[in-house]
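[agent] plan:
  1. take the single chain provided in the ticket
  2. run structure prediction with default settings
  3. attach structure tokens to the ticket
  4. add a short note for the reviewer (M.T.)
[agent] executing step 1
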Amino acid sequence: MPNEETSPSLKSPEAKGRESLLSFRDFLKAKADKLGVRDRHRRRGEWLGAIHRLLDQIRDWLRESDPEGVLDIEPYEVSRTEQDLGTYDAPALKIRLGAGEVDVRPIGREVPFMAIRGASGDATVFAGRVDITDGYRKYDLYREINQGKDLWQISDERNRFTYLNAEWFERIRQNLLS
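[agent] step 2 finished; step 3 output follows
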């Protein structure tokens, strides 16, 4: 005669619930390990942190160059989906001067190429792209991680790379708002 310990059909509903809960936990753990979910969350957080730091720097440059507050600066979010990061909402900025409008918009963490000769003169593997655009013209910013720091490079129409700084950002802004 089967006893309650060994027969699944005679187990109490509470015991069955605990068993299925544990097996579902095991299932989730195995699936998360297989899909790299924990690494996905870490990489997504790292990417979003880099975007926040870039936008903070841009806001600082805008405050320095616009002490009278002529520009309208509006933060917003864009939804992105990437194979390795899943779907997420990323911060972005809209910069307006009269009818002129410039978007600073993240494109993605996964960049499908590297610069043969980046701004440093060496081959550079990129870890993210943000576009600055007026809807017609655009500048691509590529993120390089160097000794744990974000360095943003601008690519021109001839695929030459230069590091982003306040002077370059001002040139871009003037060009796109003119």
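[agent] step 4 note for reviewer: Strands lie at 72-82, 86-97, 100-108, 114-115, 124-125, 129-133, 138-146, 149-155, 161-163.
[agent] ticket updated
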